[in-house]
Each structure stands twice: as C-alpha cells, then as structure tokens.
Amino acid sequence: MTTTAAPTTQTLNVPGAGSVELTVQEQGEGRPFVLLHGGAGVQSVGRFAELLAGQGHNRVLTPTHPGFGGTPRPAGLDSAAGLAATYLTLINELGLEDVTLIGNSLGGWIAAEMALRGSPRISGLVLLDAVGIEVEGHPIADVSGLSLPEIQSLSFHDPAPFRVDPATIPDAQKRIMAGNAAALAVYAGTAAMTDPTLLGRLNAITTPTLVLWGDSDQIAGPGYGRALAGAIHGARFEVLPGTGHMPQMETPELVLNAIHRVPL
C-alpha cells in the first residue's frame, strides 16, 4: 500500500436546476472512484476513501450530499434521482473518464440511478448494502424512531467498536446529526427508503456491477441484496462474513479484496 497526500476539500458550484453547492473531498491520483455515503454521513466512508486511495493509482472523490454534514440543501434537490443527476453533472464538469461508482446504503441507490442514465463516463458500479428497491418479504428496517445505540445494533455485526455514548456527543455534532436525519428523510422519500419503480428499472443497467452485502445486515438483509443483484443483468453478488450494513467501515479490507477480484 502506498502513502498518499492528505485529502483536499473544496466547494464546487454544480450547474443544474439552479446551482448546487457541493463539498467534495479528494485524495490520490489515477483512475477515478466516486464514493457515495449513506445516511450515516460522509464520515462513514472517510477511512475507506483513505484506504482505497492508498492502494496507489486511485483518485478518490467523496462528495457530501447537500444537507449532510451541516451543508446547505437547495429546496429543489429532494430525491436520490436528483442527487444522481447532480453527481453526473459533477463528473462531466470535472472531465472524469472510466469512473467506478461505489455507494453504500442511500449512496448505493444514488449510484444505481446514475448507472441507469447510461453515461459513457461510468465504467463500474459497486453497491454496498444499497437500499432503494421494494422486495416482498424483505422490508428495510424503519430506524426513524430508534435511538443511536439501537441503530448501531442493527447496522454492525459487532457494534462495540463503533458505539458512542449519546451523552458525550457535543451539541454542534448533535445538530449535524439531526440535519443528516432530516436530509435522509427528504432524499429517501419515505421511512421505508424505497422507490417502487426502481426494482423494475434496474434491468436497464449495462454497467458491470458488483453487489457486496454484509451477512449480519439487519437494516436490509442478504435476501434483499440477492433480489437487488438479481435485477441487474450480469451483476456479481457476494456476501461478506462478519459484516453489517456498512462494510466499508466494519470490514474495509474484505470490500477492497472483492473489488480487486472482480474486474469492473
């Protein structure tokens, strides 16, 4: 593994329905990867971005979804599909080619919506415990009324290393977390975090796709993941042992190894 320079963070104005202000962290050089976080916020992919960039010849861009991390969200940006269009514009504006998208949870939903738009700039798709589809018999857990420890218990195979005492969280961070939850509710549209049309549209994805799923995911179980992978023509599906809903946090090396084993 190589050593990379410290990540840089910039704020970019992306044209679209008005101008969208995006905070984007970047590190590494080489083939571009766009890493899309879920409802846990951009910090949930930070360490993985560092590991991916540190492997050498990888340029990793990690945008913060507007409304997360204390960033502003334009009123008209209110869906996963809207975020997908925004990020495709970002990729076009930056002139990126041969891009691999990696998305966790909500980020996987956004990545799938991006792939559905058929951009020639996108060459690979990695979905980590992605949400967005409706699967009979495999509902997504509704975490809207749960405490942080309860959410963590559902999210990790072993929540102990990630546990945080809510009483120790500073007020400023609590406000950011509340803003994250509010933004997630807007983008997901419902507490179930699904788009009833998405499952039927996934067969239009032609981008080589790898679907990775934690065997202990209690937010959206492996059966949900199999249904998602089965809806995408040619998608590879792999279950990761000892892993919950956020593989990039809990077992990042398993994710990196799987990506290297399956050329995209």
Task: Describe what is shown at a glance.
With 264 residues, the chain is α/β, with parallel strands linked by helices. The protein contains 9 helices and 8 strands.
Topology:
Blueprint: E1 8-16, E2 18-27, E3 31-36, H1 46-54, E4 58-64, H2 80-94, E5 99-104, H3 106-116, E6 122-128, H4 148-155, H5 171-188, H6 198-201, E7 209-214, H7 222-230, E8 236-240, H8 247-250, H9 252-261
Parallel strand pairs: 3-4, 3-5, 5-6, 6-7, 7-8
Antiparallel strand pairs: 1-2, 2-4
Helix pairs in contact: 2-3
End-to-end C-alpha gap:
20 Å
**Could you tell me the strand content as a percent range?**
15-25%
SS content category: alpha/beta
Major sheet: 8 strands, mixed
Shape: globular
Mean pLDDT: 93
Radius of gyration: 17 Å
* Spatial ordering of strands, largest sheet: 1-2-4-3-5-6-7-8
How many H/I helices? 9
Poorly predicted spans:
none
By DSSP, the count of extended strands is 8
Residues in helices, as a percent range: 25-40%
The succession of helices and strands, N to C, reads EEEHEHEHEHHHEHEHH
Explain what you see.
- β3 (31-36), α1 and β4 form a beta-alpha-beta unit.
- The chain is of the alpha/beta class.
- The chain has helices at 46-54, 80-94, 106-116, 148-155, 171-188, 198-201, 222-230, 247-250, 252-261, and strands at residues 8-16, 18-27, 31-36, 58-64, 99-104, 122-128, 209-214, 236-240.
- The mean pLDDT is 93.
- 33% of the residues lie in helices and 21% in strands.
- The protein has nine helices and eight strands.
- The relative contact order is 0.15.
